[in-house]
Specification:
By secondary structure, the protein is mostly helical. The longest helix is centred in the first third of the chain and has 36 residues, at 3-38. It is flat, with a radius of gyration of 17 Å. It contains three helices and no strands.
Length: 92
């Protein structure tokens, strides 16, 4: 196996881990959606969202990742999370 194949194998494993972590995160989102419905809490809480976004950008600042990338990715994650919460509200 050459270096490129080794790197690609490592990349494949890293991607699988990312998918597993996203799955865990979205399972938590479903629980949060259920909790919010039960306790009559609005799905979108702008203050909390800003806290999340700011903390993620601050954490990743030292990881050599552009802030714009983090913002774009987390906005997509947040949008999908809200969709999951809405689905949970409809089902329960």
């Amino acid at each position: 196996m050459n270096d490129l194949e080794i790197f690609r194998t490592e990349l494949d494993e890293t991607d699988k881990n990312l998918i597993d972590y996203f799955s865990m995160r979205f399972k938590l989102i479903e629980k949060i959606g259920k909790y919010k419905k039960k306790n009559n809490i609005t799905l979108l809480q702008p203050e909390r969202w800003q806290q999340v976004l700011d903390s993620r950008k601050a954490y990743w600042k030292d990881k050599w990742i552009k802030e714009s990338f983090i913002e774009e990715v987390w906005n997509k994650i947040h949008k999908y999370s809200l969709e999951l919460e809405k689905e949970k509200w409809k089902k329960d």
